Protein: Formyltetrahydrofolate deformylase
Organism: Algoriphagus iocasae
Amino acid sequence: MNKAILLIQCPDQKGIVAEVSKFLYSYNGNILEIDQHVDEELSLFFMRAAWELDSFSLKKEEISQRFELEVGAKFNMEFKLHFNFPKPRMAIFVSKLSHCLFDILGRHHAGQLEVDIPLVISNHQNLQSVVEAFGIPFYHIPVTAATKVEAETKQLELLRENEVDFVVLARYMQIISADFIKNYPNRIINIHHSFLPAFVGAKPYHAAYERGVKIIGATAHYVTEELDAGPIIEQEVARVRHHNTISDLVQIGQDVEKVTLSKAIKYHLDRKVLAFKNKTVIFY
Amino acid sequence: MNKAILLIQCPDQKGIVAEVSKFLYSYNGNILEIDQHVDEELSLFFMRAAWELDSFSLKKEEISQRFELEVGAKFNMEFKLHFNFPKPRMAIFVSKLSHCLFDILGRHHAGQLEVDIPLVISNHQNLQSVVEAFGIPFYHIPVTAATKVEAETKQLELLRENEVDFVVLARYMQIISADFIKNYPNRIINIHHSFLPAFVGAKPYHAAYERGVKIIGATAHYVTEELDAGPIIEQEVARVRHHNTISDLVQIGQDVEKVTLSKAIKYHLDRKVLAFKNKTVIFY
Amino acid sequence: MNKAILLIQCPDQKGIVAEVSKFLYSYNGNILEIDQHVDEELSLFFMRAAWELDSFSLKKEEISQRFELEVGAKFNMEFKLHFNFPKPRMAIFVSKLSHCLFDILGRHHAGQLEVDIPLVISNHQNLQSVVEAFGIPFYHIPVTAATKVEAETKQLELLRENEVDFVVLARYMQIISADFIKNYPNRIINIHHSFLPAFVGAKPYHAAYERGVKIIGATAHYVTEELDAGPIIEQEVARVRHHNTISDLVQIGQDVEKVTLSKAIKYHLDRKVLAFKNKTVIFY
Amino acid sequence: MNKAILLIQCPDQKGIVAEVSKFLYSYNGNILEIDQHVDEELSLFFMRAAWELDSFSLKKEEISQRFELEVGAKFNMEFKLHFNFPKPRMAIFVSKLSHCLFDILGRHHAGQLEVDIPLVISNHQNLQSVVEAFGIPFYHIPVTAATKVEAETKQLELLRENEVDFVVLARYMQIISADFIKNYPNRIINIHHSFLPAFVGAKPYHAAYERGVKIIGATAHYVTEELDAGPIIEQEVARVRHHNTISDLVQIGQDVEKVTLSKAIKYHLDRKVLAFKNKTVIFY
């Protein structure tokens, strides 16, 4: 089914739901899902509406302009219009660890992710053969302190050539520069291997072990300039015990990481995420 | 804040959200929450809308009739209008086990439950003193096979006298008759001490122990004529291990039961539950 | 590190732990892990002891006999002695669904599973190319009502030729015959896509949807003659909501299935599972 | 059943389990539970053994000395011997919030906690009547910056008079002085209303809301001089969503707090906790 999805943010006011739903109804739209949220503290209104496109009497190309004229301008809305076709294009960045990458490739192969994956980029070569077995081009771009700028330039070129919509860092162990991030605001998803804000930075499983926590976790978030501080999309946890070594924590944690990252990708693909400040509204 | 809450069920059609939100807007209603769900299989539409009453230009008494005229009739809606005042009145039925009862009384005492509790009815006497310490009248109505009809008659009288809106069975170990249930359709909440539909009937912890399950659970549901088969409102689980005895399962389970039941009461009080067939839509 | 692992079952008596630990100490064994459990109901004693083999003064081949003489006979023990080398050999049976298979192959590729996988057997061909990309032989053995006996004969031959120790049914959608099972008692691990004993048999997600449960689950168990009734090794659950379709339940459930199955395989490989009657003791 | 429980810490060496179990067996002890753990990093050995006292051929009073002579001295052990009688004596400190207090009193009333509660101490008066309805003496000791030393002196006097073994801070909103803590090392259990080490200090739910986390938690830990940094006994979490206000987080969190604290009390009472450095070994 062809769907349109509208994501809206604006100052909270009366009548927004009425006007948006009237707009959709007036052009014969069959609403599939409608969700709204008001952040009372900030007096901000958020909304997501999805409707069937086939019976809609506006052309795909006209919708944005008409909506701005008839509804958006009146409420001072920021809005984005998405369609569930063509499929979005996702690049995966990975280093040596395979668990998140394989989980994504497995889901994609099983037809669970409505996304095209035109390429995988890695600063190592060890995962090349499996990626290619899934029929996906693999680019090896080594990164050192000296070559970082150059490497990012190459990466950005590849993303542009491949018309990539968003990037997933599937345990990519390099810090992304502010310049790179600016190209994909709230469109780079990272998996951090701890329950943020506990244990920011490197080696969070070691830190968790030292602190003797009874639960570990993982956090999927949009990448922003401040390290590990971007809007959180999803978090999951798992129980650990005193007899678990650091190596156990790593393995238990990897299961949490891959499930958390895949959920975040799914929410992003379904256009269920609205980011503002360092938070997200997730209409699942 | 004074709120009105509308719960709607009807055949799925285009334009429902538009018409409902237009109605609210036209009388100056400030929508606080709006949720909708379509059961594709049954082509049924469900909706919940909550709005501020103080600025609304219809009187409390007029709303139902106007809504029926302007919206409900057009879409063949079944709807219920609720207000968050006066507080609903809840009766608690309990036998000998105290954990669910105390959990509810504790929350009520802490001001977490927007409900009045005019009475507790029990077929035993052991909990009388604590109930009364919380300032709530306690009625002891013993039940035997011989006196069951008479006991239920007394119970119903007490419920009517106390203008009770709904009943919570907080581990009340008696089967409620079909005649009694008819008086409170989808308004009797029971906690069953297993993860339904596993282990229906009596002694579910014994059955779970025998089967060697690794997870146990509890189920809060509306009571219907068929035992343990009513619409499920909430379920929770807890992990158990081989070294847990039946008595451990009972204790671990009681924590799950009390949290599950209290969540179900909260959803019911917040008018977030729509029951249909043997299922529920819960707009939390 | 080379390890020996002893799994013991016997009638409960005094002095068992003392005798077993004395035996290990007397031959200079460094105990790494020791766990015991008493089933009070059945007066059965269970124990698992793991120790370093390198400094142990008995030869690998002598241990069983000596233990029987010095300890086992005295307490009427059933015991099994395992070593963590050479690696056990595991066969995977799969049908069309890939999620459990890929999860296992991904872990194996990442070096997380101390096991050899000499072959994958399927009644379908769609997963052949990816299995082979992981360097593992793939055998296509179609099964129909008419060819079932013949197919199982072929399967058993392959298992014997490949010296397989145990079999994992990674969503293999065929019922295994009693004759087949007898060859691998408590050595065939199945993943059932529900929280057993709820929803035995086929189409459990459909049944869960119909019943309107709020939590779904998966169960890894040893296969016995009675369908879905074998000893449970591990169970996991996930929360679902009213808006989840059957297809959502399937996807959410698949994440639970793969994690549950992989945990069960890990427990089995680590020799942490003792099965008795239709239950398990898991020393994790 | 009368039980003895031995908790042991010592440098890791060969033969400890053998010697301890031989000791118990030589005096006709029936071992009920035995658990051991080796911290590889620190080369520390931890053990817990529980056995039936009635058939044991040493007198209760002799055990410690004999064990030191025959086993402890040889391995340089620190050990503690406990009995499950008479019941330990627990004091509860509370401020205004009732949820943890009621949860403990409810369990105690239901016979689930093998403990005597000789008194509740609070810096406020609002919970006096319910505490007294449970038949427990209530002491109101206000605390201000000026009276803090004096207040703690009074508290310590009451604890001594009542022969209190350990103290539970059931959301007691005052910082305990180092001098006070020295009287009850690893015998003061606090519930912190966040998933430590995230959100130390005051107002953790506000901080969690600001950060936009998707999961909140609670941490029960022994109190040490460094605030919120003592050995963690238990942690639990709950999922939250964007629509949850700070007040929702508080309510959802309170359920987590009370369950977490009660679990920690249970582990402590069952002598299942061994604390070392800022960590715990929990033999559950």
Observations:
- The CA atoms of residues 67 and 99 of chain C lie 43 Å apart.
